[in-house]
User: Which sequence fits this backbone?
């Protein structure tokens, strides 16, 4: 609670009305402590195992590496073509995030600034795609992509392009929803003034509305990137040896006769760093985005 | 023709209003000008929505309709090259997958029940942990920012990286879980096999909760910020303690956000493919054979697209029914409140 900040907390006999009783503080300590352990345990295992020699991860588990080595971080690039998977993931995720953002900006502008027939239907239809099980349209999409490839020669199945347009639709609904929320918080007078000054609606969007909601837009971009970076189901069907992304490629370490757990952990850490850094940096924008969307 | 179009563009351009068409210049071709004129007459928002709509149609709606069509066809590997000409079977696929005394139907029912049990447990626990953490961590205290970042890490990690770590931890010989529960705490009399047999269900629930509770935490944290501080201050003056405040102010205020969180978690968990796929591969043990993996196997391992689609359509119907029922139920509750 914000105002509790300024009050003396449980200071002897002069207890303020907002001071917390001991039962609350003990519960808080236990619950938050247990949850911290639960949340962090796998991360600790990931980090510590990635610094262990192979015999440490093959035998019984141990908390601390017998020798700290960075060898796994060097070996991961040779055991499987991790660099190629990494580049594929990077291309697919950035392209789909960029396209999704560009498309969502215009759609969100229309939803937040215009009252037109079908506005509600559009919002509900787009959001409802989020509830479809991916497996439902995976099979038909697979057939459509193969057929388009056979008919026109555009290789969508197995290509990065096919994956890019698939992923962009995954992040689109939520991006539109959040962006419309951010745009609502930009005073309408700003872009109306631009329109009166003779700007077209597109210029009003580009010059006034977008700069005013830039942090939110960056957050949505990060969300779209993470969505693509983490997708497994479509990646497992729609890629081949050349276009395989990290989501599928990481499993390659365990199909070898010897399972290099230390390398798997090192690779997992390497592929996590970009998204975790982006997420933690932008989490507060995500929270405001959620509330902005929920208020409407 | 061209002059009439030009006249119409001018007429549209003269109309006042925010969506005015740009000044017509002689270099714009007639068709583009017609589009601009239409845009000026109120078509502009539709133009802005068009790309989003096109992609959603191509990737979601058209394949979904096609999936429904395929579910009435006998599409097996034999017809895969020429899938448009696969023979119709009417309700044949539906008969096969709902023949509950035959192996295919039995397996589907089993998988459905496993998924339901898994979803109820995982969503309930995720919500419980998320709201407990959000409410308890609402007061400012030292290290609160760090704790929040810590709690959100599972949600931020790519699913294949974190779930593969759990798979490592649940290994029989060299896993951390057996080591902690057997060697250190002595809770287990002997090390357990986690990734095969009935224990795989527990593993699935634990990993799913670990991944999803931060989402509940994030949303409920945002919801708490919307509760007016005055409510707490007034009740504190009236002598209400913190536990009473949580019960009488916090929980009722969070009702609408809870409804959304539970629905979203339900849909995610029920449709979750990544977690079981990374943990068990395509051949999940029976105790963890959730519906998404089951349909994936039926379609891409045995290449029986017709039956796979029939199962998908049934799944969609179920999800639509549950969602509609849930929304009807919760909105009725809200109206009764008002």
Assistant:
């Amino acid at each position: 609670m914000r105002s509790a900040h300024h009050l003396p907390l449980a200071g002897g006999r002069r207890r303020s009305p907002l001071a917390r009783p001991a039962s609350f503080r003990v519960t808080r300590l236990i619950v938050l402590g247990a949850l911290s352990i639960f949340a962090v345990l796998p991360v600790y295992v990931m980090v510590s195992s990635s610094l262990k020699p192979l015999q440490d991860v093959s035998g019984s588990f141990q908390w601390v590496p017998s020798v700290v080595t960075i060898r796994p971080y060097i070996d991961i690039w040779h055991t499987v073509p991790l660099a190629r998977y990494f580049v594929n993931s990077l291309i697919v995720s950035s392209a789909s995030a960029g396209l999704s953002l560009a498309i969502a900006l215009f759609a969100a502008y229309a939803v937040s600034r215009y009252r037109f027939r079908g506005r509600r239907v559009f919002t509900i239809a787009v959001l409802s795609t989020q509830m479809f099980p991916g497996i439902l349209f995976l099979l038909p999409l697979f057939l459509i992509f193969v057929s388009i490839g056979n008919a026109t020669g555009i290789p969508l199945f197995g290509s990065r392009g096919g994956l890019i347009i698939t992923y962009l639709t995954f992040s689109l609904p939520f991006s539109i929803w959040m962006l419309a929320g951010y745009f609502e918080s930009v005073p309408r007078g700003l872009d109306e003034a631009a329109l009166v000054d003779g700007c077209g609606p597109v210029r009003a969007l580009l010059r006034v509305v977008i700069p005013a909601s830039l942090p939110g837009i960056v957050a949505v971009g990060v969300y779209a990137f993470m969505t693509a970076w983490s997708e497994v189901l479509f990646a497992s069907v729609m890629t081949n040896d050349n276009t395989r992304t990290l989501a599928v490629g990481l499993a390659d370490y365990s199909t070898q006769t010897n399972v290099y757990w230390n390398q798997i952990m090192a690779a997992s850490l390497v592929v996590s760093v970009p998204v975790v850094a982006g997420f933690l940096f932008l989490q507060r924008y995500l929270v405001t985005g959620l509330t902005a969307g929920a208020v409407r | 023709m061209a002059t009439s179009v030009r006249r119409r563009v001018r007429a549209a351009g003269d109309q006042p209003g925010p969506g005015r068409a740009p000044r017509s210049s002689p270099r714009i071709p007639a068709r583009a000008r017609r589009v601009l004129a239409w845009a000026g007459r109120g078509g502009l928002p539709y133009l802005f929505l068009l790309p989003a709509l096109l992609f959603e149609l191509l990737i979601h709606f058209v394949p979904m309709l096609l999936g429904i069509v395929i579910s009435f066809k006998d599409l097996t590997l034999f017809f895969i090259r020429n899938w448009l000409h696969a023979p119709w079977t009417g309700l044949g696929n539906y008969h096969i997958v709902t023949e509950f005394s035959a192996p295919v139907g039995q397996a589907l029912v089993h998988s459905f029940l496993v998924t339901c049990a898994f979803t109820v447990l995982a969503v309930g626990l995720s919500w419980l942990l998320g709201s407990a953490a959000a409410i308890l961590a609402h007061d400012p205290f030292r290290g609160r920012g760090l704790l929040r970042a810590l709690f959100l890490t599972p949600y931020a990690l790519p699913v294949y990286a974190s779930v593969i770590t759990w798979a490592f931890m649940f290994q029989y010989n060299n896993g951390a879980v057996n080591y902690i529960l057997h060697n250190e705490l002595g809770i287990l009399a002997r090390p357990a096999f986690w990734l095969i047999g009935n224990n795989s269900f527990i593993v699935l629930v634990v990993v799913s909760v670990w991944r999803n509770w931060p989402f509940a935490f994030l949303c409920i944290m945002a919801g708490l910020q919307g509760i007016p501080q005055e409510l707490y201050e007034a009740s504190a003056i009236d002598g209400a303690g913190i536990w009473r405040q949580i019960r009488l102010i916090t929980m009722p205020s969070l009702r609408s956000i809870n409804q959304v969180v539970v629905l979203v978690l339900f849909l995610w968990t029920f449709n979750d493919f990544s977690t079981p796929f990374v943990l068990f591969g395509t051949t999940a043990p029976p105790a963890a054979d959730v519906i998404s993996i089951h349909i994936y196997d039926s379609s891409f391992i045995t290449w029986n697209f017709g039956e796979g689609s029939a199962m998908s359509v049934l799944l969609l119907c179920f999800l639509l029914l549950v969602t509609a029922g849930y929304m009807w139920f919760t909105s009725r509750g809200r109206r009764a409140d008002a």
